[in-house]
Amino acid sequence: MRTALLILGICLFIAGPAAKIYHLDHANSYMIASGLGLVMITALGFMKKKDSEN
Protein backbone atom coordinates (compact mmCIF):
# COMPACT_ATOMS: atom_id res chain seq x y z
CA MET A 1 0.00 0.00 0.00
CA ARG A 2 2.85 2.35 0.86
CA THR A 3 4.50 1.70 -2.50
CA ALA A 4 1.24 2.35 -4.37
CA LEU A 5 0.81 5.69 -2.59
CA LEU A 6 4.39 6.62 -3.38
CA ILE A 7 3.90 5.82 -7.09
CA LEU A 8 0.65 7.84 -7.13
CA GLY A 9 2.44 10.78 -5.50
CA ILE A 10 5.24 10.66 -8.05
CA CYS A 11 2.76 10.53 -10.95
CA LEU A 12 0.87 13.52 -9.56
CA PHE A 13 4.12 15.38 -9.01
CA ILE A 14 5.16 14.86 -12.64
CA ALA A 15 1.72 15.63 -14.12
CA GLY A 16 1.75 19.34 -13.21
CA PRO A 17 4.92 20.42 -15.00
CA ALA A 18 4.08 18.15 -17.95
CA ALA A 19 0.69 19.86 -18.32
CA LYS A 20 2.39 23.27 -18.31
CA ILE A 21 4.94 22.19 -20.92
CA TYR A 22 2.30 20.77 -23.26
CA HIS A 23 -0.10 23.69 -22.65
CA LEU A 24 -3.00 21.45 -21.64
CA ASP A 25 -6.36 22.89 -20.65
CA HIS A 26 -6.72 23.54 -16.91
CA ALA A 27 -2.95 23.29 -16.38
CA ASN A 28 -3.26 25.21 -13.11
CA SER A 29 -5.41 22.40 -11.70
CA TYR A 30 -2.67 19.96 -12.64
CA MET A 31 -0.18 22.15 -10.77
CA ILE A 32 -2.35 21.95 -7.65
CA ALA A 33 -2.39 18.16 -8.03
CA SER A 34 1.39 18.30 -8.41
CA GLY A 35 1.63 20.12 -5.08
CA LEU A 36 -0.51 17.44 -3.45
CA GLY A 37 1.76 14.79 -4.92
CA LEU A 38 4.76 16.54 -3.42
CA VAL A 39 3.04 16.60 -0.03
CA MET A 40 2.32 12.87 -0.32
CA ILE A 41 5.93 12.07 -1.20
CA THR A 42 7.20 14.20 1.69
CA ALA A 43 4.76 12.69 4.18
CA LEU A 44 5.67 9.15 3.18
CA GLY A 45 9.35 10.03 3.45
CA PHE A 46 9.03 11.17 7.05
CA MET A 47 6.65 8.47 8.26
CA LYS A 48 8.33 5.51 9.89
CA LYS A 49 7.73 2.07 8.48
CA LYS A 50 6.08 -0.35 10.88
CA ASP A 51 8.24 -3.33 11.72
CA SER A 52 6.68 -6.54 10.49
CA GLU A 53 8.74 -8.61 12.93
CA ASN A 54 6.95 -9.59 16.14
UniProtKB/TrEMBL annotation:
The keyword Transmembrane applies. Keywords: Membrane, Transmembrane, Transmembrane helix. The chain crosses the membrane at residues 29-47. This is Uncharacterized protein. The lineage of its organism: Bacteria, Pseudomonadati, Bacteroidota, Sphingobacteriia, Sphingobacteriales.
